[in-house]
Structures are given as structure tokens and as C-alpha cells.
Amino acid sequence: MKNEYIFDATPEHIEQGASIIQKGGLVVMPTETVYGLGASAYNAHAVARIFEAKNRPTFNPLISHISEIDFLSQYAETDERVIALAKYFWPGPLTFVLKRKDMSSSLDLACAGLPTVTVRMPKHPVALALIQAAGVPIVAPSANRSQTISPTTAEHVWQSLGTRVDMILDGGACSVGVESTIIDVTGKDIVILRPGGVSKEDLELFLHEPVLLSHGNPKLPSSPGQMLKHYAPSHALRINAIHPEADEFFIGFGEIGPEAHLNLSHSGDLNEAASHLFDYLHQADEQTVFPRIAIAPIPEVGLGLAINDRIRRAAYK
Ligand code: TXA
Ligand code: MG
User: How many A from CA of 77 to the centre of ligand 1?
Assistant: First the structure.
């Protein structure tokens, strides 16, 4: 479905999007992880509109998306370790929580008044071109209403946010399919606040040191992405299912199972599974014949960590 809000991400439409961003509007952009609801990081009014459009319960800090690594050291306190990580994993699904350096008050809302700033460089030509053309960092949470399944197509965005945004740039389905890995690099140890598109194993392989995994306090989240109920479909979801019940729409993985309605990856490839996850949850949630969803067990390695994190939250009632 195309309409007056969804635009193919042509160079002309990207230019138009950039000018909307500069004027304080909201432009949805495709990234390699999920679609992001973008606004200028320095326009507090536009940032406030993001919270309103998403119906975020409180003002949560947003990720600033940049297109050039050099910008990072103007924005945040960096060190050799952070620069090395950024050079290796960017552009890509890795987000840093850093000590804030740019104290412009216009940036306060994007940072939710915290002494930290959260930054990533997305690996999607449309997102990079949009940021470049806008000439400002673009803050972008996932482009969905709060506590619903994240969007991996322009269609998902339209279904969730509709006319609350000014423009949706359609760049096709997101290739990674789960959100970025968020790491806190403000302390001595590196702590994963949210598992995502870069695996813990890949980080450790690069760093030659163990990376910690934050389990947070779900009641007092340091990262609201750590709240237990998040990414939730409206249908009840059962995890670690081997066989479906009669009223369940069954999402399989690998050999489990032949009776699945959809299979995240027949060959058991976790990257492929991540790229299908949110789309299949959207499809399962639209079923009228099956009021419940069941999902096969996913191994807790590589991107399996991010997938299991999302489906455990989706299953939480
Ligand atoms: O892949 C992604 O990261 C996508 C795409 C659009 O880039 N963005 C995304 O943003 O997932 P969002 O807002 O849906 O999730 C970011 C999470 C939120 O749970 C937020 O609370 C947390 O990151 N966060 C942001 N800044 C933080 C900070 N300074 N300290 C702790 N948590 C932070
Ligand atoms: Mg989100």
C-alpha cells in the first residue's frame, strides 16, 4: 500500500525528507535494524513530537544517528577503545552510551537530561544519505507505538504510526531485523544494556576481553528497552514450543517444526531468523483464526541472545 505519506527512497525524496527534518518535522527512515522515527537532535520541539507520536510513557533518551565518525568526538567524550570499536563496527548495529560533551540545551530532551549521550552510525544508504543531507544528527527510536512490535517495513510503520509522522521513506525490508546492540562504555567494563544486531561473541572477539550483560532492574530501567513488557504483540505468545496447540499460530525455527505456519530459518541460521522475527510476529498478530502464538526454542548464542530477549518480552504478561 502506498499513500501520500509513504515515499520510495529516491534521491529527491531523501532531499525532501532532509528539509522536513531541518524544519522540525518527523521523517521515518529505514535502517539496517528497524525503521526509525527521525527528527533533528537539536530541535526539542520535534523531539517532543517523537514522544507524543510513539506515546512513550516518559521521556526516554533517544539514539542520535550520525553519518561521520569524526562527529563523535564533538558530541561525546571518547577514548581509544571507543574509537577502535566505532571504526570496526560502524556503520552497523552497535550503539554507544557515552559521557555527553555537547552541552547545548537544545540537546537536553534528546538526552532526557542525562549526563550521557547515545550514538550510532546506521548501515543503510538511505539513513546515511538523509543524515548527511540534513546536516544534523538524527534522533530516532524505532518507528512504532510504544510497547508494540518494532517495524521492519514501511507498511509496519504506517500501520502503527499512520498520519502522526510527516513522511515515511520506504527502503524495503530491514536486513538485520532486530535493534542495535547498546553498550555502556562510560565505565571500565563494557556492559551490554540491550543485546542486538552485533553479538556479544563478536564484541569479545574484537576486544579480547569479556563484555558484561546487564540484566537491569525491570522496575527501574536504566534503559527502558530493559522493561519486561516491550515489543509485545496483542496475541498471547508461548515460547520454547515444540508443537503448537490447535488455536496457536506456530513460528518454527530450523527442524522445529514441520507443522509450523512460518519458519524463522529452515537451515537454523540465526541472522536469517533475526531478519524475519518482527515481520513474522506482525503476521502472527494479524491472524483471526489463531488467537495465540507459539514460537520454537532459539539457541542462546550469537544473534539468538537478541532474538530471545525480544520474544521473552513479547511473551511477558
Ligand atoms: O536499532 C536501533 O537501535 C533502532 C534504530 C532506529 O536505530 N533504534 C532504537 O531506538 O531501537 P529505541 O529508542 O526504540 O531504543 C533505544 C533504547 C531505549 O530503550 C532507550 O531507553 C535506550 O536505548 N537508551 C537510549 N539512550 C540511553 C542512555 N543514555 N542510557 C541508557 N539507555 C539508553
Ligand atoms: Mg523501540
Answer: 19
pLDDT in tens, 7-54: 999 999 999 999 999 999 999 999 999 999 999 999 999 999 999 999
Nearest ligand to residue 36 Cα: 1
Residue 146 CB–ligand 1 contact under 6 Å: no
Burial class of residue 245 in the structure, from the number of CB atoms within 10 Å of its CB (0-12 exposed, 13-18 middle, 19+ buried)? exposed
Burial of 208 (0-12, 13-18, 19+ CB in 10 A): exposed
| Global confidence as pTM | 0.92
Atom of ligand 1 nearest to the CA of 37: 6
Grid look-up 565505565 returns: 187
- CB 308 less than 6 A from any atom of ligand 1: no
Ligand showing the shortest atom-to-Cα distance for residue 176? 1
Task: List pLDDT tens digits, range 186-210.
Answer: 999 999 999 999 999 999 999 999 9
Distance CA 3, CA 10 (A): 16
Quote the ligand 1 centre to 267 CA distance (angstroms): 31
Count Cβ atoms below 10 Å from residue 159 Cβ, excluding itself.
16
Which bound ligand lies closest to the C-alpha atom of 230? 2
For CA atoms 161, 49, 129, 231, give the dihedral sign.
negative
Q: In angstroms, rounded to a whole number, what is the distance separating the alpha carbons of residues 308 and 213? A: 14
Pairing of strands 138-139, 63-65: antiparallel
